[in-house]
Amino acid sequence: MLSTVSSYRVNKAKVGDFVKDLSTFKRSMGFVSDINESTGMMLVKFPKIGKNKWLLWENYGHYVVIK
Questions:
Q1: Distance between CA atoms of residues 18 and 31, nearest Å
Q2: Are 31 and 44 contacting, i.e. CB atoms less than 8 angstroms apart?
Q3: Is the model's pLDDT at 4 over the cut of 60?
Q4: Where exactly are the structural domains of the chain?
Q5: Model's pTM, two decimal places?
Q6: How confident is the model at residue 25, as a pLDDT?
Q7: Which residues pair with 51 in a beta bridge?
Q8: Could you identify which of 6, 19, 33, 50 might form a hypothetical disulfide with 63, taking C-beta atoms 3.0 to 4.6 angstroms apart as the criterion?
Q9: In CATH, what number does 18-66 get?
Q10: Per-residue pLDDT, 9
Q11: What angle do CA 44, 24, 22 make, to 5 degrees?
């Protein structure tokens, strides 16, 4: 029996976008300051916790872009 997997496109962030972290790390909302396409990572500034973090750029539902 074959199962079908529904696939949908989740928006990727761009430099200057605000993103809401939905992961278990609970980092709140951040600002995308850099994207490294060769490594597939984006640098996000989280002012609430006062840290910059490199996150996976390909969006698997671990963040949402705030428009």
A1: 5
A2: yes
A3: no
A4: 18-66
A5: 0.80
A6: 83
A7: 46
A8: 19
A9: 2.30.30
A10: 56
A11: 55
